[in-house]
Amino acid sequence: MRYVVTGANRGIGLELCRQLLARGEVVEAACRDPQRALELRALPTRPGADLRLHACDVSSDASVAAFAAGLAEGGIDVLLNNAGVLGKMESLEELDLDDVKRTFDVNALGAIRMTRALLPRLRQGRGRKVVHVSTKMASIADNTSGGAFGYRMAKVALNMASRSMALALRGERIVSVVVNPGWVQTDMGGPGAPTPASESARGLLALVDRLKLEDSGEFWDYRGDRIEW
Ligand SMILES: NC(=O)c1ccc[n+]([C@@H]2O[C@H](COP(=O)([O-])OP(=O)(O)OC[C@H]3O[C@@H](n4cnc5c(N)ncnc54)[C@H](OP(=O)(O)O)[C@@H]3O)[C@@H](O)[C@H]2O)c1
């Protein structure tokens, strides 16, 4: 199978690439600066696996278009929209709205840019899955602690976009879901997070493998449970 992973150079994206390559998949690994993605470049592969590095800034129309145009021909089976930013953690009074807009541009619009650019390839693929990495912090039902305005809002927008994509693409049997990777030990999650990136990625890939059309449009936890909106 052929996968696209955004934000592939570190954190959960890097771990997704590691595990996909270990099981022999073709990985189109997208990151902002492939030259500096030393860990990604050093990932071991096995027979059948292929790691292909690409530059891609998901906040840039031109960069996403160039990425899509640079892919070798053929279908894409699974798109993993993983790239994301936390943005500033500020109080209501101090909130930097330009930072909120940047957070939206990456976390919400980035997934739309990627999905639209790759739709012709997804239509050619056999997997027919688009998976957007969201967060439980985007669950309105679960928000009892507040704060993180930009991050929460942008990921809620991503959640809604995923549901609408699921409806738009259902007729073509293409699945769109949002997933919560857990609280993960990455630069974003910090060292105090309970879940190693390897465990999160393992859970996410197991979920992705078993996703069916009837699961489309929903919000899933990396352990395989549904999350309340
Ligand atoms: N860690 C957690 O606890 C946690 C919890 C819930 C959800 N998530 C979500 O999981 C995803 C991965 O997070 P992570 O923990 O692995 O974060 P991370 O360690 O901070 O890595 C973020 C990744 O996104 C990339 N990225 C940021 N802006 C980008 C852009 N404009 N274009 C392309 N790539 C960009 C980064 O690339 P650069 O190296 O170039 O910056 C990096 O590869 C995110 O969507 C995040 O919101 C994480």
Heterogens: NADP nicotinamide-adenine-dinucleotide phosphate
State the order of secondary-structure elements, H for helix, E for strand.
EHEHEHEHEHEHE
Total DSSP E strands: 7
Q: So, the CATH homologous superfamily? A: NAD(P)-binding Rossmann-like Domain
CATH architecture: 3-Layer(aba) Sandwich
Main sheet properties: 7 strands, parallel
Anisotropy-based shape: globular
Our Rg estimate from Cα atoms comes to: 16 Å
- From the N-terminal CA to the C-terminal CA, the straight-line distance is 31 Å
Strand content: 15-25%
Judged by helices, strands and strand pairing, the structural class is alpha/beta
Average pLDDT works out at: 98
Characterise the protein shown here.
The model has no long low-confidence stretch (mean pLDDT 98). 39% of the residues lie in helices and 15% in strands. It is globular. It has a seven-stranded parallel β-sheet, sandwiched between helices. It has one domain: 3-Layer(aba) Sandwich (Rossmann fold), CATH 3.40.50.720. The protein is α/β, with parallel strands linked by helices and 229 residues long. Bound molecules: NADP nicotinamide-adenine-dinucleotide phosphate. The site of NADP nicotinamide-adenine-dinucleotide phosphate has 27 residues, from helix 1. The site of NADP nicotinamide-adenine-dinucleotide phosphate (NAP) has 27 residues, from helix 1.
